[in-house]
Design brief:
Number of domains: 2
Strand content: 5-15%
Bound molecules: iron/sulfur cluster
Number of strands: 11
Order of helices and strands: HEEHEEEEEHEEHEHEHH
Radius of gyration: 20 Å
Largest sheet: 6 strands, mixed
Helix content: 10-25%
Distance between the termini: 54 Å
Structural class: alpha/beta
Strand order of the largest sheet: 6-11-10-9-7-8
Length: about 260
């Protein structure tokens, strides 16, 4: 016991200050690949290197046009292949405020009454365990989501936010639909992780629907595979109107 008291006195409060202060501790984010602009005078060798880079992406998240290589964050599974292509590697951006509202959200942010108390029902719709693990980290002393008024609840009848992880396996279709139907309004649906957004490496198949959005209307999307806890925390803040959403889901002209 005294050992814990001494460690507490020695190390102080380890909880992140986010969102009051930006968190830049090492390891809080793996980053995300971002658009790469292409020089108009690329050599033939560089051109074929870029084509190879695009082909190597296992989920088709990279798309090449005449002057750029774009990344679809919904599909990126963080395999880091495009980061290891030497001079042709895609640029990566550190950060974690990745949560974006869908182009046609079913509902806006929850109102002011939810800013100090919002309850979250988590549904594992075919997760491998990675995204769920990051969600669980939110209750650790480092992230401590309770300080921001967020609480997990086992019952959808008390939930304001439905947080879904996993590739939307067909076996979970009914459970997802029933969970949403049991939730009171207003409510918000967050899909977290590349699998929940697009099916990830599973895509659309006989066993999965290719993303949660094909089963229930999604309001907020969090890319990443898995998204780090701070990205999920950002999504919760966006859901309650306490943070601005990221711009990547907007039309290209709006985002630039
Ligand atoms: S990290 Fe992997 S999945 Fe993501 S864009 Fe690069 S190659 Fe594609």
């Amino acid at each position: 016991m005294s050992q814990w008291v001494w460690s507490g006195l020695r190390w102080g409060i380890p909880t992140t200050r986010y969102p009051a202060r930006r968190e830049d501790a090492p390891g809080v984010t793996p980053g995300l690949p971002v658009t790469r602009r292409l020089h108009s005078l690329l050599s033939e060798r560089a051109q074929s290197g870029i084509d190879r880079l695009v082909d190597r992406c296992p989920t088709g998240a990279l798309a090449r046009s005449a002057d750029r290589v774009d990344v679809d964050p919904r599909r990126c599974v963080h395999c880091f292949r495009c980061a290891r292509e030497g001079t042709e590697a895609m640029p990566w951006e550190a950060g974690y405020e990745w949560a974006a509202t869908t182009p046609l959200p079913a509902s806006g942010p929850l109102g002011r009454p939810f800013r100090r108390s919002a309850h979250i029902r988590v549904v594992d719709a075919g997760d491998c365990g990675a995204c769920l693990h990051e969600v669980k980290q939110l209750t650790s002393p480092y992230y401590n989501l309770h300080r921001l008024g967020f609480f997990f609840t086992p019952t959808p009848r008390q939930a304001d936010i439905l947080l879904v992880v996993g590739a939307a396996a067909d076996q979970m279709r009914t459970a997802l639909e029933k969970t949403l139907a049991a939730m009171p309004t207003p409510r918000t649906v967050i899909a977290a992780g590349a699998c929940a957004l697009s099916g990830g490496i599973f895509g659309s198949s006989f066993a999965c629907s290719g993303g949660v959005g094909s089963i229930v209307p999604v309001d907020i999307e969090v890319p990443g595979n898995p998204p780090p806890p701070l990205a999920i925390l950002h999504a919760l803040l966006v859901a309650t109107g306490r943070a601005q959403p990221a711009a990547w889901a907007a039309a290209p002209d709006e985002a630039s």
